[in-house]
């Protein structure tokens, strides 16, 4: 989602100097990514988990994980039962074959899908060469295409409503829904055999398409036979493996395990310094009921310590009682997280106006997070431990039941239903993770401006925009030149894979041919040795927001994602947690690739960035920063900014001259 930082937001929403529209802020990108992130964790509410633990307990755990990932946990970042939802295969373009082992999953939660109609849903549409559940909207089944269109249209309508209402809630919800739709569209690349089929279209002959060797067919507008587009069957084992842990010795550090360890560790730390740090902040930063944050922190701490927590069990034996208990917990935790969020947003707002703030704010960010986890630990640790225990107890049976399906595409020449674990590019270890990640980012960069244009212009047909986007993503690479209204999007995807492949050295291509061959995949050589994932949280260990590893939400690890900005230049997400002076400067200059470059140049003469993240020099005039009365620094004038972009390479050189600094 970092690519969105380079894109321009709707003119009707806000404009910069000289009437130029502003780019998406880092907090906007976090709001958008929150919708994307929620769809990964909705998989925690499925038959494989609700049989062993209450959905309310899962929502609570995911809520805390969200707080740790985004640095906020209330308002637009609150994880609720409605926002989290449940596992719906269509949201992830997952193959529904074998879902719930033939049971009606609605007996566990009415929001889950019903039994699979294998004849209709799993057949291949001869018009498109794709499985019916992906995009055949003519036979009365649930499809990913129909779902994405609906979500995109809702996102457009909410953005337009925001223009009329000026209510932040409408804008935030529009961003969340856009992130939800992007998740589904990105999952087409992550979960399907599109990349393998694209390589076959480029003339490769031995790339394994993850289907039986006798499944080639004729499709409309294509002269040669092709293998069908399919995705993997997503059993409970896949989510339990990637998120809940307990699968092998290498997966000891599951996200739930990490969460419990972090919360427990926070209890051991001293929080006495928070009050004195809050009292040192300039009074102009806070207003209203937060005008005396130190006093308010004392009151919240006293309230939390006065609560008497019941001995909770989160087993589903008495769901009504569990619902009542979990709701009581939420009511006790919410004021603590809400206070944290208000303070951190106030600080972040101040940072956006101040080029450099003292290290005091770093300390406040760290101490505030420690304070939060110290207060909520007695409430949530029993839940975390019980959820982990129940899930691990039920995982072994799920794992055993799915192993037989892993090699069906090797043993059945007519099989078109590979498993998710075998096919998906979600994990960094898969050799196609990087090219699919690049293609996903290029696709998002094609999608978002169309939504922004629709926000700006009510005359644009939202249905046509949604249909164009969906048709541009969901397609067989052999039909990349078809569908005139969506051909541009199709070529964006295909060209991204093509450019990656042709950009490799001959030796690299030859090595990949072996790994991607039928025998290479059977032997799991399409995964890199020594590369292991740790959940959906962003390609890094969990950590308290603003402190250490968990400070910055990125595209989650279970999605193809190359690193868009080098870690030492990460511009943060707006939740506090500054780790260096360059990071604070990046915040002041607007973040993104340009903000990172300008921030880095104050200490280093040149900065390396990925070329696809570059932004043209639009901030020259806006680099005059007025600080006001918050700090004694009055102005910073930056002139002589020079940006040289070398296309198709990974270098950008930025040179600025600070000609006047007034104190």
TrEMBL record:
<feature type="compositionally biased region" description="Gly residues">
    <location>
        <begin position="536"/>
        <end position="549"/>
    </location>
</feature>
<feature type="region of interest" description="Disordered">
    <location>
        <begin position="515"/>
        <end position="583"/>
    </location>
</feature>
<feature type="compositionally biased region" description="Low complexity">
    <location>
        <begin position="550"/>
        <end position="572"/>
    </location>
</feature>
<dbReference type="InterPro" id="IPR010816">
    <property type="entry name" value="Het-C"/>
</dbReference>
<dbReference type="InterPro" id="IPR052577">
    <property type="entry name" value="VWA7"/>
</dbReference>
<protein>
    <submittedName>
        <fullName>Uncharacterized protein</fullName>
    </submittedName>
</protein>
<dbReference type="Pfam" id="PF07217">
    <property type="entry name" value="Het-C"/>
</dbReference>
